[in-house]
Amino acid sequence: MAKASARFTCQKCGAIHRKWVGQCESCGAWNSVSEESAPAAVPKGLSGGKGRKIVFESLDGKTEQKPRWVSGIGEFDRTCGGGLVPGCAILVGGDPGIGKSTLLLQVVGQLAAKTRCVYVSGEESVDQVRLRAARLGLSNADVALASETSVRDLVTTLDTADPPGVVVIDSIQTMYVDSVDSAPGTVSQVRTSAQELIRLAKARGFSLFLVGHVTKEGAIAGPRVLEHMVDTVLYFEGDRGHQFRILRAIKNRFGPTDEIGVFEMTGGGLSEVENPSTLFLSQRQTDLSGAAVFAGIEGSRPLLVEIQALVAESTQATPRRAVVGWDSGRLAMILAVLEARCGMSLAGHEVYLNVAGGLRINEPAADLAVAAALISAVADNPAPADAVIFGEIGLSGEIRPVGQSDLRIKEAAKLGFRKSIQPAGTASGGKPDGGPLAITKISHLRDLVAAIAPHAPTPVAASSRGRR
């Protein structure tokens, strides 16, 4: 039998190197390569008689669809696609202290009335989990607790004829397989532990939650293949300075992706927010410049948020550009379009952009609202307080249509808005619930400048100002 040898594995991407290197050649991470024991080599030339013959089946076979487990927490069920599918594996990631353990304990506390639930913590003791449950008002929930890190013991316990319905593993980075010669949290241990637990969940038909730590870049720690092994990947996002938390579906084999659930962190745990648009706009001031309301779409839900911009003169050679909650690359593009197509130069100004409420926006439809906030800040003239703005900006300054405009307009009318600034090629949306909106359609970014700041002076470029 071939002898096991040592190998060097990157703990970030899982790439294997022949020797130790300071920087991984695959992902570029520094000091991420560590030595691990390689498994014995598989002999070449496998004979056909040793394996098991695979029996193929046709597509027209009948498959029994089991009902989903509905937790009763509407925002969570929405993000999962309507509930938990029996036999599914869900990976939940998020920053430390964001509320992952609190959310899952509340979920199993609600599901315990419908099925047997197991909560396994590798980071906390049973007493610590009980204290959290008491704070959340879940002391009477029929949830089985355990503090364990051995995957072999977990598989032996859960592999029965009467398995539980829901199992939570908090977290997968603390689990270890004793046959793998490496420390818990390494690529080999995380991959092997997840593979064994997911295989058991599929075989026995229980829903499996895996809590995953995230790196400083915001990605789930461990090999990228971990996200491919599970059925659903949920990211729990939020800013510690805000009480709002966003549960976002990055991948979902049993429902829509990019669906979100909005929660509010309170002293008694996480409470769901049924109308997040009202919450995000609750502190909005309508008489200030540099603010615009964006009508966005997150998954299947329309969402209204305020985009704030601040433009100030700078004495530095390279003015600062700071962005919170949006893509800094798209901000640079909009600034370039404003200068090249509208004659509004901001080269000598510092620009700060913020999405109020701690929400992260990835939709290109926010381009027009960002441009409106920037134009309003430069002209020191408030944008229309009763208007929502959405649309994508091209490099030539043209405004391109975006999808699902009807949902955006209906949500705006429901919250009392009376105007909509949108691309020219977008459908009007008829008369949404709550009253008709006065729709202003624009085809070029110059039209937006004329609508918000018709008499605003153009900022002077840094190159044309006198220097001392």
What are its keywords?
single chain, 468 residues, alpha/beta, Rossmann fold, Ribosomal Protein S5, domain 2, nine-stranded mixed beta sheet, seven-stranded mixed beta sheet
Present the secondary structure layout.
Elements: E1 6-10, E2 16-17, E3 33-37, H1 74-80, E4 89-94, H2 100-111, E5 117-121, H3 126-135, E6 143-147, H4 151-158, E7 166-170, H5 187-204, E8 207-212, H6 225-229, E9 232-237, E10 244-252, E11 260-266, E12 269-272, H7 276-280, E13 291-298, E14 301-313, E15 321-324, H8 328-342, E16 349-355, H9 367-379, E17 387-389, E18 392-393, E19 399-400, H10 405-414, E20 419-423, E21 438-442, H11 445-452
Parallel strand pairs: 4-8, 4-9, 5-6, 5-7, 7-8, 13-17, 15-16, 17-20, 20-21
Antiparallel strand pairs: 1-2, 1-3, 9-10, 10-11, 11-12, 13-14, 14-16, 18-19
The gyration radius over C-alpha positions equals 27 Å
- Largest sheet composition: 9 strands, mixed
The CATH homologous superfamily of the largest domain is named P-loop containing nucleotide triphosphate hydrolases
Count of all domains: 3
Helix percent band: 10-25%
Assign an overall shape: globular
Number of DSSP helical runs: 11
Biggest sheet: strands side by side, in what order?
6-5-7-8-4-9-10-11-12
Strand content: 15-25%
Class based on secondary structure composition and strand pairing: alpha/beta
CATH architecture of the largest domain: 3-Layer(aba) Sandwich
Mean pLDDT: 86
CATH topology of the largest domain: Rossmann fold
Q: Work out the number of β strands.
A: 21
Query: What separation lies between the terminal Cα atoms?
Result: 79 Å
The CATH class designation of the largest domain is Alpha Beta
pLDDT < 50 stretches: 430-434, 458-468
